[in-house]
Write a structure and sequence with these properties.
Structural class: alpha/beta
Oligomer: single chain
Strand order of the largest sheet: 3-2-1-4-5
Distance between the termini: 31 Å
CATH superfamily: NAD(P)-binding Rossmann-like Domain
Number of helices: 3
Strand content: 15-25%
Shape: globular
CATH architecture: 3-Layer(aba) Sandwich
CATH class: Alpha Beta
Radius of gyration: 13 Å
């Protein structure tokens, strides 16, 4: 199974770590606007594949988590629409940017 994350902050990072612990054979791909977050996640063996551009990094994912402020999700959905597999599960853990730490 391949799982993708767009946004690897507190929420996305926690989900990715749990998946890694419970399903160590899962391939985890991630994109985050701050590259240093991705580098640390790779160093900690949480993420296997660092995605540089959302447009072409998630074509083989079985599940994709959008872990972003709700208002930002609208920017990413068109980028994903043309590339994800027909049976890919796309889910979110969106939050209000003004109330999230």
């Amino acid at each position: 199974m391949t799982v993708g994350f767009i946004g690897l902050g507190l929420i996305g990072g926690s989900i990715a770590k749990t998946i890694r612990e419970k399903h160590p054979d899962t391939i985890i791909k991630a994109y985050n606007r701050h590259r240093e977050v991705l580098m640390q996640a790779a160093k900690d063996d949480v993420v296997d594949v660092l995605v540089n551009k959302v447009e072409d990094g998630f074509t083989d994912c079985d599940i994709i988590f959008l872990c972003l402020p709700v208002i930002t999700m609208l920017d990413y959905l068109p980028l994903l629409k043309s590339q994800i597999k027909e049976d890919c599960i796309l889910t979110d853990v969106g939050f209000n940017q003004n109330t999230h730490p």
